Structure prediction request, 170 residues.
Amino acid sequence: MPRPCRTGPGIDYYVARSSVGAMAHAPASPAGLDRASEPAILILTSLASGVKHGYALTKDIEAFAGVTLGPGTLYGAITRLDQRGFIEAAAPEERRRPYRITAAGREALAAAVRDMRTIADEGAARLGLVLPMTNPMTNPMTNPLKKAMTTPKRPTSAGGTRRARLGWST
Prediction:
């Protein structure tokens, strides 16, 4: 029920109060990395392939994500990641200050990637999309064990075993 409010002599108006409760949100990831386009995730993803300084991070992120991070966004996220122990400064190179991902950063990135994969898989299933296999351990062309199981065997020569023909000792 709206309550009357007085604002002056003889002027009444009503303030409507919402009857809708607070919306429930899914809990944030323990690492606090929630969106794929979040600068922290982009930076950690870039650093997962090796040590980089700010400009190299910007160029790498543009290349793999199509996102351009401005200097304020980039260095603000770098500062927060450093404070949380997800990255650390490497040995300086001339005027550049390179960064590397820490073990805690790798764990946080892995958790965020798993969460994003779960959401992507669910969205694809609901849309009836077939996503390509990207996990090297499930892709028979990149996993040597699966490749060996799916690749047809070539017959060995009559003169010996395949190992001997290749020069491997038995």
